[in-house]
């Protein structure tokens, strides 16, 4: 084998990368174990410990902090950790209307309504739909009349064509989505979530947000759906506010003198004695993170300044501590920000804060710390409104200034420019003397994004914001500044909430299924293939290490379907070994030596291995493109697993075999029980093909009958919209009784109740108020649910909940259709290119449709019979596509054997009885590989089905029956049908 040295080098290099990537999990585990030991069950103390470690180096050699290491470990998804995900939809209809100055034109508004209706029905591009609908209503109408306003004059001329307007609107829509993404991300960062995952769903006006560990769903909904408000405020300087803060501190000391002290965290400063009134700022030690005997008195005497709030100060030339100039009045650790604001809200403190002052936090912690800046905002108007609102911004863009430094260029509207001139003149102070220049705070959602110092009056509304910015900072700030101009409300069209208890169950069941499935595979390979099986097992262990390392390196989020994908990949990875080993056994049966047989086995199996893995990888890529959330997680792990499996099972195992051959070691590929398995098999698959056609037809007809009887497919909430709740009771419950209790509270709307794995766990689905876009609708439905469930008299907990609006449901349906059709087209093209015969490609595609129909038929026949719901949802589509992948891998292996046999005979094709014999030979010669691979994957799926938990049972069931159907289809349908598709060619021949 050539390139053994390179393969060893790559294996070692990949191993080092994987070890490094996985090491972060070990480091965070050790830190969190220490936190638990320190806290002894006290969650507040545990969190305080972890907060104190956030900026401490915890990774040896590299000196990475706990916060940095935590961001690099493999994160657990919602189904393993609990939490919430939402899909936000940006209202492009309201955006379009606002760009037209909220016109009252009847045709314009009707076109908006029609476009929105078509978008809800599955349309893809709102702007294109709107322009098309308007042109239908007003064939010769000019959209520029609505959009060529004073604010848009630079981008859109008055004589612009409708195509130009469409391009302008598309650009503004994309910009609005980008700005919404920035705003939502900043809100989530402010919420203090760990490892949130945000994705713009390309080609749509939606943003997907996943927040592991979050349980306060109402707060999150309010946080995400609230309207963003951009404001410009004047600010007080640090020296102007210290007197107020000092007074607050003394009042707090008086009121708290008899209470327990708080944990001190203060600035480490010089403790030299001085008569300066600020000398007391240096009396507390910054490194103290909990109250101890030595600082109790100090903390009581100064509960705010020095204990929680670090005042900005410096030493002058005489060694005296002086207040630092600037807009920041102090910094506070993130964990103490709520406590500081609670102090400010105390009844005895409120009167000490003037009505012209209010405190706000900065957006991000200071570099390398977890400390946030505190600003004192100056209220200059009688009504308490800001000096300037976001509607004053006409445009903002990221730019470069002197020295090629990133900055933001900003333009105001005419009215905004006049106000901007006034407030910048007030802030600028004395001309040519910048010692008293003041800042203006740019605020979004009551958070200070930046507070640049103004060094001169800005008369024309055009100004520049500069500072220590990166180009990403200026891009984000430009987007934020533009946010006030174009109101594009965001609403939640889908959400999914998982409770922590359900997440723990998923972890336990996922790990159990993983371990058992892995043991099953190792045992099978060792028992069936003897010593060669142990080499395959070693390759499997290496493969598992590579899979986890690559996922960690890419920052993947591990979900339960992701674990299923890993387990399934391990099951599928033995396919390459089985292909190789079966070919080696064939060569050994021909009397060849072990070394030659191994070489020939690898050579002859390689084409089939490449083809089968490429087809499955293509299906995984399609899943990743069309799927979302858990489906995409399954697809990513599947694709990663396929690549690492090829490397481990083919290249590394080959190196191991050749090393053993060089040492003249005895390598066996069977034992006395498996030596003659699948020998002398001669099934007449082609001759019985019409019987198989009849069997498949009968099952499909039965499926159609049950489809009519059941009133259609059992569509899940993904496909029809609605809300679904998983509710666990303290005793077994009757589904009919629960449904009867709920319907009156749902005002007569349907309450579909099914068991979810056990009699005391129910899945409740309802369309009640699903069309209601009011922010309170979710709470209203949940309250109605709780009232109905209370009437059952049983104790219960809502373990998870999901909402999907009809709009997103229609998109999922069309996406599912697109995924299946696109898969079939790609498979046909691949087979056509690889095997140069359209009959092979069409036969494979017919088999794919056959498999889909059979799986759907079994779903309709068995729905209601099995103790778990068989719903058609996104996970079912993922299962269908995976089943199609199974069929393709099996079929390609047979086609490859046909091509190989034709090559040996020197022919390009054969017909009639010779073709029948050839196809039967190919099917029988690959039967051992087909059966063994199918059984291996089937057992793996069976383990996951039994131990993998309720949340993926329906998904795994589809894979189980799909595995059986795929094996049957590849043997009895896809290849034999080539005979019938080639009848005309046979006649010509």
Alpha-beta classification: alpha+beta
Helix proportion range: 55-70%
In CATH, the topology of the largest domain is named Multidrug efflux transporter AcrB transmembrane fold
Total count of strands? 23
How far apart the termini lie comes to: 43 Å
| Average pLDDT level | 78
| Poorly predicted residue ranges | 260-277, 282-294
CATH architecture of the largest domain: Up-down Bundle
CATH class of the largest domain: Mainly Alpha
Shape: globular
Strand content: 5-15%
Rg result: 34 Å
> In the residues, how many domains can be counted?
5
Main sheet overview: 8 strands, antiparallel
CATH superfamily placement of the largest domain = Multidrug efflux transporter AcrB transmembrane domain
Kindly report the spatial arrangement of strands forming the biggest sheet.
3-4-2-18-23-20-22-21
Overview of the molecule:
Residues 178-235 form the Protein translocase subunit SecDF P1 domain. It is a multi-pass membrane protein. It is found in: Cell membrane. The chain crosses the membrane at residues 510-529, 536-557, 563-584, 605-627, 633-657, 691-708, 812-833, 840-861, 876-895, 931-949, 955-979. The chain is of the alpha+beta class. It folds into 5 domains: 4-72, no CATH class; 92-206, no CATH class; 232-257 and 299-485, Gyrase A, domain 2 (2-Layer Sandwich), CATH 3.30.1360; 496-708 and 810-987, Multidrug efflux transporter AcrB transmembrane fold, CATH 1.20.1640; 722-803, 2-Layer Sandwich (Alpha-Beta Plaits), CATH 3.30.70. 55% of the residues lie in helices and 13% in strands. It is built from 31 helices and 23 strands. Strands 3-4-2-18-23-20-22-21 form an 8-stranded antiparallel sheet. The chain has a 5-stranded mixed β-barrel with strand order 5-11-10-16-15. Strand 15 and strand 16 form a beta hairpin.
